[in-house]
Amino acid sequence: MRYLTNTSKKRSHPYSLSAVALIAVIGLSGCSDDDDDSPTPAPVTPTPPAVVMQTYTVTVTNLTANQPMSPIAIASHGDDVMLWQAGEAANVALEKIAEGGDAADVAAIEGITSTVNGAGILMPGMSETITVTLEEADVANLTVATMLVNTNDAFTGLNSYDISMLAVSDSVSMRGMVYDAGTEANSEAQGTMPGPADGGEGYNAERNDVDFVHIHPGVITMYDGLMDSVLTPSHRFDNPAVSISISRTE
């Protein structure tokens, strides 16, 4: 009897044992823990925009014959701020300028963003140029004020002028009238004026005049028949008494 022997080769499984093991390892690695231990990146703080500055020069010229002017006071502020208004009572900051040439209180007025003062007394016929540097966001209006020191309460300047429309290299020129603060009687008497013609009192909190701002009527001298006056004809002044130019340089 013949025995038949199966001589066909045994077919191997399409996946070998080693391949199955590798797939298992890959599968396990793909099912790792969902926890992510990597550090959370710090939030990025945006860089603030650079502050843009604008620079202006203010030149003030004393046009009077014999009225020295107190150190020039310049204030920057919004368009809703007025240092003075004709027909209305002077605030204390203006009263201190008009009676004693002291501008220290201007900075405390609501709405004032910055102040700068001149170097000293501005003598007749002389000019002073003052630099004002402002952040672009603060550029709006400028006010200039100074006292005619051989008077009781006369002042002049420029009230709330809009500089926001000035381009670099633009300039404007104006002239200022003389105002009476209305806070002190214009006696021109000895001891009542702080300037060199008298060397008397400056600011006094008592108000003994009409108590509203108006165009100054001019001074009266001893030669005009006011025997108590210590002023001479040289102390008279015409309007305008001051020239002011503003230039944007940057």
Give structural notes.
There is one protein chain. The chain is mainly beta. The protein has 2 helices and 10 strands, in the order αββαββββββββ. The strands form 2 sheets. The chain has a 6-stranded antiparallel β-sheet, with helices on one face. Strands 4-1-10-7 form a 4-stranded antiparallel β-sheet, with no helix packed on it. The longest helix has 14 residues, at 17-30.
Strand content: 25-35%
* Overall mean confidence score, pLDDT: 89
Classify the helix fraction into a percent range: under 10%
Unreliable spans are: 1-12, 19-26
Strand order of the largest sheet: 3-2-5-6-8-9
Oligomer: single chain
Summarize, please:
This protein is mainly β.
Keyword list:
single chain; 250 residues; mainly beta; 4-stranded antiparallel sheet; 2 helices; elongated; disordered N terminus
Please give the structural blueprint:
Blueprint: H1 17-30, E1 53-62, E2 73-77, H2 92-100, E3 112-117, E4 127-135, E5 141-147, E6 154-162, E7 171-176, E8 178-180, E9 214-215, E10 242-248
Antiparallel strand pairs: 1-4, 1-10, 2-3, 2-5, 5-6, 6-8, 7-10, 8-9
